[in-house]
Write a structure and sequence with these properties.
- The structure holds two protein chains of two kinds.
- Chain A is 27% helix and 37% strand.
- Chain A is an alpha+beta fold.
- Chain B has a domain of 123 residues: TolB, C-terminal domain (Neuraminidase, 6 Propeller), CATH 2.120.10.
- In chain B, the strands form three sheets. Chain B has a four-stranded antiparallel beta sheet with strand order 5-6-7-8, with no helix packed on it. Chain B has a three-stranded antiparallel beta sheet with strand order 2-3-4, with no helix packed on it. A three-stranded antiparallel beta sheet of chain B has the order 9-10-11, with no helix packed on it.
- Chain B starts with a helix and ends in a 27-residue tail after the last strand.
- The chains are: A alpha+beta, B mainly beta.
- Chains A and B meet through strand 1, helix 4, strand 3, helix 5 and strand 4 of A and helix 1, strand 1, strand 2, strand 9 and strand 10 of B.
- Strand 3 of chain A pairs antiparallel with strand 11 of chain B, so a sheet runs across the interface.
């Protein structure tokens, strides 16, 4: 697969894709083969299109092999044709188009943290960035009252599976701090680094009860595991 | 009741109520440890440590610290921005291949490696994998602008869910996988 400029994932014919150009050529070649086979009589195709131009699965899917001579065999093969084709072309992951437009509206965005129903990120326009929490089912940002401050600069964010707890590293009044936000309570609590250190990147366990924090202490980066009460 | 009240009282009274520990030794010769990522169940910790002068992904069982093997991710350094699925089956990380940075997902159960090459004018900076493995978020830089994009992997990866939770339909084998 390859990611196209619009975010679309293109299938490749090789298990080791070497680049977008090759992936695109592979896709176009197969599309051409399919269009060609649809526009020509099968008798002519059997004489002209032989491997390697057509793969065995593509031949079978298009009923070009000699195997499905019986209608009893042809029917199940027709049912399996999409499956055979998908194995041949690869299944394309689907970019979340509606969500993509929503995210584009935020402006620039970075530092994503994904749970199955929530996407937390840092985004904004004109240099003013804030923590954004997107409900992936509704594809809409939800309010985070009390979390974002105009004088604070968020640096990293993590979210638990329920979207209830967010951990945020932010710069505020010249210092870098880690805070834990509980959405239902709209409450913010500073998590003190002990021994003292400067937090940077964070990860939250799915149930929100454990934090992994990258901390700089004396010029060395360490990882702390913090149980959240 | 008493326990809940104690937790409530302690939650606002300072840092002493937060249990803390270091993630422990990062391995032979490693001093720095960065980019932590917990699996959804908290039993696996991924981090990036220096090994032989190269930033290398380290996967450890918690709390024992036992190192877990990786099939593909012992090379293609530097590694950065790891992310784990619920049980740690899927390990998503950025690797370096030639002069390009690439997002990949290693399936620790069947050894597959799923690759996400980007067009030449885009560079991936960070990633995050949903605990089920059904979605992947990439932070992509294009024309100097960072943007987060989310991709649906429901047809690419089997869901990695908590034990006992029905999967709701399995996924197909990754099409661009190496075996």
């Amino acid at each position: 697969m390859a990611l196209a400029p619009g975010g679309k994932l293109l299938p490749t014919t090789s298990p080791r894709p070497t680049g977008l150009a090759n992936a695109g050529i592979g896709l176009r070649t197969r599309n051409l083969a399919i269009n060609l086979t649809r526009s020509l009589p099968p008798s002519l195709l059997r004489r002209t299109l032989t491997p390697p131009l057509l793969t065995r699965s593509l031949q079978a899917a298009l009923h070009l092999t000699r195997i499905p001579t019986s209608p009893l065999l042809a029917r199940p093969l027709a049912l399996f044709a999409p499956l055979l084709l998908s194995g041949c072309l690869g299944t394309m992951p689907v970019p979340m188009g509606g969500l993509d437009r929503r995210l584009e509206a935020i402006g620039s965005s970075h530092s994503p943290a994904l749970s199955d129903h929530w996407l937390a990120l840092i985004g904004g326009r004109g240099g003013r960035e804030q923590v954004v929490l997107v409900d992936l089912e509704r594809q809409m940002p939800v309010p985070l009252p009390g979390l974002n401050r105009p004088d604070g600069q968020p640096l990293a964010v993590a979210v638990d599976a329920s979207g209830e707890r967010l951990a945020v590293v932010r710069q505020l009044e010249g210092r870098t701090e880690l805070v834990l936000y509980r959405r239902s309570l709209m409450a913010l609590e500073v998590v003190v680094m002990e021994p003292p250190g400067v937090p940077r990147r964070i990860s939250l366990r799915a149930d929100g009860r454990e934090l992994a924090v990258e901390v700089s202490r004396g010029g060395v980066w360490q990882v702390d595991l913090i149980q959240v009460p | 009741m008493t326990g809940a009240l104690t937790a409530l009282l302690c939650s606002g009274c300072g840092s002493w109520s937060w249990g803390r520990r270091s993630a422990g030794p990062a391995g032979l010769g490693a001093t720095n440890r960065q980019d932590p990522a917990l699996s959804g169940d908290g039993r696996v910790l991924a981090s990036v440590v220096e090994r032989g002068g190269r930033d290398t992904l380290l996967l450890q069982e918690q709390p024992s610290g036992r190192e877990l093997p990786l099939r593909h991710l012992r090379r293609f350094q530097p590694h950065r921005s790891p992310s784990l699925s619920w049980n740690g089956r899927y390990v998503a990380v950025l690797i370096q291949q030639g002069n390009r940075r690439l997002a990949v997902i290693e399936d620790r159960v069947n050894g597959n490696l799923l690759r996400f090459p980007l067009p030449g004018d885009q560079e991936v900076e960070r990633l995050s994998l949903a605990p089920s493995g059904r979605r992947l978020a990439l932070e992509v830089v294009h024309n100097g602008i960072n943007r987060v994009q989310v991709f649906d992997l429901a047809n690419q990866l089997e869901p990695d869910l908590p034990a006992g939770m029905p999967s709701g339909g399995g996924g197909a084998a990754p099409p661009a996988a190496e075996r």
